[in-house]
Amino acid sequence: xxxxxxxSYKIATLGSHSxxxxxxxxxxxxxxxxxxxxxxxxxxxxxxxxxxxxxxLNNFSELTKIESKLxxxxxxxxxxxxxxxxxxxxxxxxxxxxxxxxxxxxxxxYDRTLQRDWLKKAGLTLPKIFKKPEDIDRPVIIKFFxxxxxxxxxxxxxxxxxxxxxxxxxxxxxxIQEYVIGAPIYIHYFYSPITDELEIMSFDKxxxxxxDSIGRIAAKDQxxxxxxxxxxxxxxxxxxxxESLLPEIFEMGESVVKASKKLEKQGMVGPFSLxxxxxxxxxxxxxxxxxxxxxxxxxxxxxxxxxxxxxNGQMSTGRRIAREIKIAIEKNKLGExxx
Length: 339
Ligand code: AMP
Prior knowledge:
By secondary structure, the chain is α/β, with parallel strands linked by helices. It contains 13 helices and 14 strands. It has one domain: ATP-grasp fold, B domain (D-amino Acid Aminotransferase, Chain A, domain 1, 2-Layer Sandwich), CATH 3.30.470.20.
């Protein structure tokens, strides 16, 4: 089988986000790999020896130009955050290249309103949304549409503060969400349609500028400097969770998968993540879902404590994707994972 896999399919992804992990995982499972890079940004994929081949584009948005080339190479594209960031959902659906996961489900991630419907259908607790700035009666976080990595988000407590801070922002399409005070935890799941099993892969929290460094300055100095918080992501920090929370975490993931099957035929396939805040009374508030691999899994390129338990080590989310493809090939069930 090893030889057959090597010859017949190649794993390809855009050179950014979690590509190192995805390509390394694919190689570890015996696949040849292709990194699709933007000109001048190939270095990490060469230096870390994860790509058997590098295809260079001027810009990721030119991906459609290499559709037939990728098809000839029998490439399977693995989506990640950069991919969903540069391609519209329609463009992803139109792309004539094999794609890991269910592209139909992405629509439920792209649109924040649909995303809320999905999470509500799964019975999860969500932060309140304020329809008008005039309704603000508690701390809120303002999120811009299409903002990647939390850039430009800001906090407000009153309507007046909201309008004052909004003036300085360029983007005007936003949502106003209750700000939940608690510990942020991002849960990394993997759902296999072949075994119908939901796995917990790992957890992380983010390392954001400037919010994660404001605590290094005394409160008095923060006020004197007139600091505003921003949430621009710079990296990720690994977490293990309190063990007694795990049963609920499994249940949350399973209900998301169950709900997804009612939204789209075949539902959620492969890795996904719930972004949560846990309050002091240990209640989970879910404020976002990513229907693909998230960059928080990058820390666990060799393994996570949970992958150690489940796989005896040597399993990342990237490698788990390649393993799923391999199992699907062996069982003649590729149609269940390339949708
Ligand atoms: P996001 O880009 O949506 O993942 O959010 C960026 C940052 O804002 C992260 O640090 C989150 O923990 C934080 N955040 C987002 N939404 C909320 C919320 N409703 N309550 C508290 N923190 C939040």
